Amino acid sequence: MYKYLVLICILFTVGCGVPSPSDSTQVPANLFSQVTNISPGGVTPAIASPTSQGSLFADLGTVLFRDDFDGSLDPEWDWVREDASKWSLTAFPGSLQVIVGPGHVNSSNNSNLLVRAIPAGNFVLETKVVFQPVANYQFAGLIIYESPSNFVQVGRAYCAGEIPRCIGDGFYMDYYEGGSFVAPNYSQSFTENTPVYLQLIRRDTSYTLQTSTDGEIWTLCGTTTSNMIPLQIGLVTGQNTSVELPAAFDYFEISTLP
């Protein structure tokens, strides 16, 4: 069983803000080599001293599925609103690059939502992604999905402006219930142009976001609860109000959570 440290971040209370234009960001072709590939009514966790993940989440158990995006996609993947000109497995070999465009899951108008059937029981979704958003509301990460009205997505995103608790470039959890955003979003600032690891953990009706820069030491950002009946899981990009830019996913993994 892996040993983790969990650093619990300060929790925030509302969603994203107004546009803040900036220049596009390029992903260096060798960026993944810099990191070793190791493999919502919101409920607010209490702030506590760092503790091991084992005391919060049991041994991750068995890997149910992993796609390293080496040459072809697993046949069980489905594209929703696919734009084949905006994704590639060859731009950065060994990764899935998606050009982040406009649109939102809640509005059923974002392209290249990549999903597959949800596994039974409790589980952990994990990915490593290179993405540095520069303008509202660019987003790339993981999703657990019932419908356009009910889903949880977590990822690297940008949010700034008049609405409180938007912190610019960082990590965010977006939970939609009945078509409406449910606070808090558990935002955590992060501005480095380096690969990041994301985990979205489902335990019964709770959904938890954890982040890492090395795949070993994890930060617990927050847990939300939902009575939705999710049908699919996968990778999500979108919400781009400015220039297009790439998100490069190194892998996608599902593990059991006893």
Task: Give an overview in words.
Strands 2, 4, 6, 7, 9, 15, 16, 17 and 19 form a 9-stranded antiparallel β-sheet that branches. Strands 5, 8, 10, 11, 12, 13, 14 and 18 form an 8-stranded antiparallel β-sheet that branches. This protein has 258 residues and is mainly beta. It has strands spanning 5-6, 42-43, 51-52, 63-67, 78-80, 87-88, 96-100, 113-117, 123-130, 139-147, 150-159, 168-177, 180-182, 188-189, 196-203, 206-212, 218-225, 232-238, 245-256. It has no helices and 19 strands. The model is unreliable at 1-55 (pLDDT under 50).
Overall form = globular
Overall helicity: under 10%
Query: CATH fold name, please?
Result: Jelly Rolls
Number of strands: 19
Strand content: 35-45%
Largest sheet: 9 strands, antiparallel
Main CATH class: Mainly Beta
Supply the CATH architecture. Sandwich
Distance between the amino and carboxyl termini: 13 Å
Q: Cα-atom Rg, whole angstroms?
A: 17 Å
Structural class: mainly beta
N-to-C order of helices and strands? EEEEEEEEEEEEEEEEEEE
Alpha plus pi helix count: 0
Extract low-pLDDT stretches.
Answer: 1-55
Average pLDDT, rounded to a whole number, is 82
